[in-house]
Amino acid sequence: xxxxxxxxxxxxxxxxxxxxxxxxxxxxxxxxxxxxxxxxxxxxxxxxxxxxxxxxxxxxxxxxxxxxxxxxxxxxxxxxxxxxxxxxxxxxxxxxxxxxxxxxxxxxxxxxxxxxxxxxxxxxxxxxxxxxxxxxxxxxxxx
Length: 143
Ligand SMILES: [Cu+2]
Fold this sequence. Notes:
Blueprint lengths: L4 H12 L7 E9 L7 E9 L5 E7 L3 E12 L2 E6 L3 E3 L4 E4 L4 E8 L8 E8 L4 E9 L5
Parallel strand pairs: 1-10
Antiparallel strand pairs: 1-2, 2-7, 2-8, 3-6, 3-9, 4-5, 4-8, 9-10
C-alpha cells in the first residue's frame, strides 16, 4: 500500500481538528449537589495558556439531563440568571465561574451528582477544540 503525503496530511487534519485539545487549564472544578434533584450549579476556573483568545461555547456531561452556561447577576437587589452563548478567555487570561457570576447549570442531575463523587464535563470551544475536566461533587453547603 502506498501512502501519499496528501493522505497523511488529510488524516492528520481529520484526527486533530475536531478533537484537538484547547490550550486551557481547568482548576478548582466542583458542582453543588442539591436535594430533591434541584438544578446543580458548577464552578471552576479556566485559564487560557495559548496565544489566541479561546471562546467557550458549550458544555456537556452524561451526568445531567442538560448542562447549560449561565450567568447570575444582581438586578436591583434581585438575583437573576440568564443563558450565556459564549465566554471568551483572552490569551494568558483567566475567567472564574463562581457563585454570583458565571456557572454551569445542571438540569435533571443523575445519581452521579452525589456529594463525595465526581463527574466528567466536556468543554467545547468556538474553534472546534475541546477539553475534559473532572468536577468534584460537593454538598449544598459547598463542602
Ligand atoms: Cu443558573
